[in-house]
Amino acid sequence: MLDATVLIIDDDDDILLSARLFLKQQVKQVITCKSPKEINVLLSKNEVDIILLDMNYQKGASDGREGIYWLEHILSIDKDYVVILMTAFGNVELAVKAIKKGATDFILKPWENEKLFATISAASKLRESNRKVKKLEKIHLSLQKDMTRGFENIVGKAGGIKQLQNTLLKVAPTDANVLILGENGTGKQVFAYEIHGNSQRKNQVFMHVDLGSLNENLFESELFGYAKGAFTDAKEDKPGRFELADGGTIFLDEIGNLTLPLQAKLLSVLQNRTVTRLGESRERKINVRLITATNMPLNEMVAKNTFRQDLLFRINTVELLLPPLRKRGTDILLLANHFMQVFSSKYHKENRSLSAKAEDMLLNYKWPGNVRELQHVLERAVIMSDGKEISEEDLQLSPQRFAQNTAMPDEMALGDMEKMMVQKAIDKHKGNISKAAAELGLTRAALYRRIEKFGI
Q1: In the chain, where the domains are located
Q2: Does domain 325-395 have CATH number 1.10.555.10?
């Protein structure tokens, strides 16, 4: 039996009955209707793979113009629909015209069952091939940035990092939901990608979604997709990120930024494992591995009723808390040497080494921007250094900023620390949001949300 849904449109009850009786033994689902005027409703409510479309509906008509009209209408909804035209009047010229207009095949009534099944079988294979190609095209467009950016491996020997790596290797082969916590720049995305890379889904899609940069109005259309005509600019059907990640892993970054209404919508999708595109009523099944991350204190937010407890239960089957860089000791030097190798190769320079004073400076600095800040510092140092050795001057860590960070207590609450970092970046750049966001490793939208959150 073919795993396909076939829609048959014909104004002859006998044709519909005979086709349904035969095809229901051959395909997963058969839908019939007498009028092509029902096409829009039927296609919006059902995931149709193959359409058998009669060419004449008015009494006495035999020129096939109605069939051509409805063929063009169907393909305007989705050019990848597989349409087989049916007619009782054999006409080579009409058949050629139908194929040129986009029909997949053309059969005469009454048909031989073997011939009909062979035609349906070939059409089903074509539909599946079209679906795969279309999905791959969408994935390519959506993932282009991530694919060109690349990912770093986990580097470090500190006790906390070793424990995290051991946990990662245990949880990665499962489909357990993972919540990654930690300050900005601690490597949450790197850990998410490592989980995916050590999972059974490693050859499938890794879909990174920055929820902090998503406008609330775009949340549903980006994550769940939309149908053509769902809103003004919806000129074609578009699958959402969950559909594109089907079979793979979806990484929802900055999940703590979601409003309560958006949390409810996400929870519904995670519980039902289905998505419904905007403008449609049909549910689509999804099979994804969920990884989430945030730098916000979710348990405190639950206590304040700003984050749903049931959503927290759903996303944190396993929880990873990444330590800030200032607590990772000599890992700072391991990471620094790793980044120097990466950027020496990237900028076609000889491998650099750190002077003793530069090493001391790196170890004593408090790194409010964590690994991301260290990466930026070393990239700049490799570019600007003249010799093979990188000095403390090449690091360009300002004494004033160094002193401020040294005075920062490790016990400071995560929220207070984040507020201080945001305020400091804004003050440094004299209110220039773009520059402040770039320094913090945030988008402008994400920085504006933090300004509003902290009342800055």
Answers
A1: 2-131, 158-321, 325-395, 414-454
A2: no
Q: What is the pLDDT of residue 416?
A: 67
pLDDT, residue 157, reads 83
Nearest 5 degrees, angle CA 342-CA 346-CA 352?
A: 55
Of 337, 4, 397, the closest CA to residue 155 belongs to: 337
Alpha-carbon span 440 to 361, nearest angstrom: 21
The CATH superfamily label for domain 158-321 reads P-loop containing nucleotide triphosphate hydrolases (3.40.50.300)
CA distance 324 to 10: 67
Assign domain 2-131 to its CATH superfamily: Response regulator (3.40.50.2300)
With 0.85 as the threshold, say if the pTM is over it: no
Q: Where are the beta strands (DSSP E) in 88-192?
A: 105-108, 178-181
For the chain (length 456 residues), average pLDDT per consecutive 10?
Answer: 90 90 92 92 90 85 84 89 83 78 87 89 86 71 48 74 91 96 94 93 91 87 90 86 93 95 95 92 93 95 95 95 92 92 89 90 92 94 89 79 44 63 79 79 76 76
Do 2-131 and 325-395 fold alike per CATH? no
CA dihedral sign of residues 339, 342, 343, 345: positive
CA-based nearest residue to 50, from 130, 114, 137: 130
